[in-house]
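Researcher: Please predict.
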Amino acid sequence: KLDTLMLAYFDIKNALVNADSIVAKQAAKKFLSLTDSLKMEELKKDTSGIAETAGMQLIDIKANAESLLKQTNIIEIRQDFRAISESVYPLLKTIHYEGKTLYWQNCPMAFGEGKEANWISNTEEIINPYMGKFNPEFKSGMLHCGETKDSIKAL
């Protein structure tokens, strides 16, 4: 189920690369419904607090996905995507994600000079969802702006 959730996350990311708020919201709706179908029972058997931590991260993920669905401005949608990313990344680390390698990437100027944002990618190539292909100021010139900060590899 986590792989399916991540595919929906990547659909949101790709829609933001194309500045397509309609597709981003459709993907966020799917993403949100998939968060409800995550099976947390296995984690609840763990006594080290993983289930509690993961549950709190999921609450944040859902709240930000719900907020994204209410936005009308692409910048606000991207802000909520940033917040979703900031909760999905530690969730993957907490539950010891075992899928294919994912990359934690950063744009140092996602929301203006010195206002960075991160996202998760399933490729090493930087394809920036905050600058995208149709940035009003830079057009597609900043599409590959950013760097990989970390990777999540199956154990």
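Model: The chain has a mean pLDDT of 92.
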